[in-house]
User: Which sequence fits this backbone?
């Protein structure tokens, strides 16, 4: 493409966290941006402000320590020139070990900087179809308008989810393997064997009683009342309420499995399925749930193998809109079938404020590079930004679900470090060293 940046324009749809970060990265590289935002002309039910980057839920951007997954992600973004991190640091309010912001000041600062940038033209308009003839970044978020959602479904061949029913994910190293065993049913599956968490009759009955009486998160989504959707993603606690043995004939059925410690079939078994090729994360198969997060840790911890489990994602059930990204996107956030079309934000399968912004940062950089005829910036998987992009593009799970920043998606360290804080610090040091080396070898401007 033409390298004369004065003649180039990129479309960005949506002025949330991902869209604003993408627009800024593009504009900072001397390229004109048309930023489409339907506010104030039209708002979703969740939005009240006319400002960009409205923080709808918490004002916390999670842990500040670089020696944590969330802190590492933010530090990587700082080093890559993130607008949102610049604004967040200036709008910070006391929050213990977290980075929290005054949400109004934060949104106001981002809006002012976006609107003042000479390369960004803000257009208050609802987009109902893909713009033609230029590179485009779609960052419309989980509450994408119905009209545009239909166009996305059409472009993506139907691969768009409108309901998020996710089971918890735990780290491999936190599973007590003295209380678990690796096998597939009837010894089928080879290297794809599950980790099996057996329970005896008393353990199961105690677990069942706790599960059906556990406190659930409040529900507000109309979608969950749709019988077709609801039955297809039944919360495990609702399933358990149908009878004490329901789980033993469903997600906890023990058929085809033999506990090597006893030589017999267990009374009930929870299977864990690997979430990544490194086998550092495991999904609780069939355990989609609407329990409150502390209740998930308490109740699922009654399963002996999970008594000390570390959760990188708790189970959730809520309305969402996200792509089946491994089938559709590359790790530069461009569509496999159309390298001029990028997606960013929660729609891609990243979960969290800064995760969304981080995907926007990379999508913006790569949209700019695309229109300038440069190769995409692909960050190494040792970085948190690179690992999230790799997850979005290459997740091997049969049931793709959104993922937030966590150390479990990073490749394992060369040496095992038992202390959790020291291990996190080692991950962070490696990530930032690799990021620095990558920026030297891949010119990111």
Assistant:
């Amino acid at each position: 493409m033409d390298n004369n940046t004065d003649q180039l324009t990129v479309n960005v749809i949506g002025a949330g966290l991902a869209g604003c970060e993408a627009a800024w990265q593009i504009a900072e590289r001397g390229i004109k941006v048309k930023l489409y935002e339907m506010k104030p002309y039209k708002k979703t039910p969740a939005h009240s402000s006319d400002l960009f980057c409205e923080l709808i839920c918490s004002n916390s951007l999670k842990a500040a320590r670089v020696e944590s997954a969330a802190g590492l992600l933010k530090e990587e973004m700082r080093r890559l020139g993130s607008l949102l991190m610049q604004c967040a640091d200036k709008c910070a309010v006391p929050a213990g070990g977290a980075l929290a912001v005054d949400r109004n000041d934060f949104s106001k600062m981002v809006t002012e900087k976006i609107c003042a940038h000479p390369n960004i033209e803000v257009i208050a308009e609802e987009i109902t179809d893909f713009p033609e003839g230029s590179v485009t970044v779609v960052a419309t978020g989980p509450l994408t308008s119905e009209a545009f959602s239909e166009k996305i479904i059409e472009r993506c061949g139907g691969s768009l989810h409108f309901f998020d029913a996710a089971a918890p994910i735990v780290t491999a190293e936190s599973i007590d393997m003295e209380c678990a065993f690796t096998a597939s049913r009837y010894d089928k599956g080879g290297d794809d064997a599950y980790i099996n968490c057996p329970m005896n009759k008393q353990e199961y009955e105690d677990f069942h009683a706790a599960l059906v009486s556990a406190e659930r998160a409040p529900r507000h989504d109309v979608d969950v009342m749709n019988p077709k959707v609801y039955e297809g993603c039944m919360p495990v606690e609702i399933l358990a309420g149908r009878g004490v043995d329901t789980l033993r004939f469903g997600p906890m059925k023990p058929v085809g499995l033999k506990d090597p410690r006893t030589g017999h079939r267990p009374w009930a078994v929870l299977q864990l399925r690997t979430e990544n090729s490194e086998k550092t994360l495991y999904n609780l198969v069939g355990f989609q749930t609407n329990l409150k997060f502390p209740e998930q840790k308490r109740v699922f911890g009654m399963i002996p193998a999970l008594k000390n489990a570390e959760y990188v994602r708790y189970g959730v059930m809520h309305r969402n809109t996200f792509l089946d990204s491994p089938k559709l996107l590359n790790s530069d956030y461009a569509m496999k079938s159309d390298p001029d079309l990028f997606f960013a934000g929660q729609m891609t399968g990243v979960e969290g404020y800064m995760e969304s912004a981080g995907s926007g940062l990379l999508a913006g950089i790569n949209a700019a590079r695309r229109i300038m005829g440069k190769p995409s910036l692909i960050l190494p998987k040792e970085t948190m930004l690179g690992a999230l992009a790799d997850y979005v593009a290459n997740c091997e799970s049969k049931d793709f679900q959104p993922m937030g920043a966590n150390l479990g998606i990073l490749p394992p360290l060369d040496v095992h470090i038992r202390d959790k804080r020291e291990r996190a610090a080692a991950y962070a040091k490696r990530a930032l060293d690799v990021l620095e080396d990558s920026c030297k070898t891949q010119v990111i401007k």
About this structure: The CA atoms of residues 23 and 366 lie 11 Å apart. The domain at 169-317 is CATH 2.40.30 (Elongation Factor Tu (Ef-tu); domain 3). The first helix runs from residue 17 to 27.
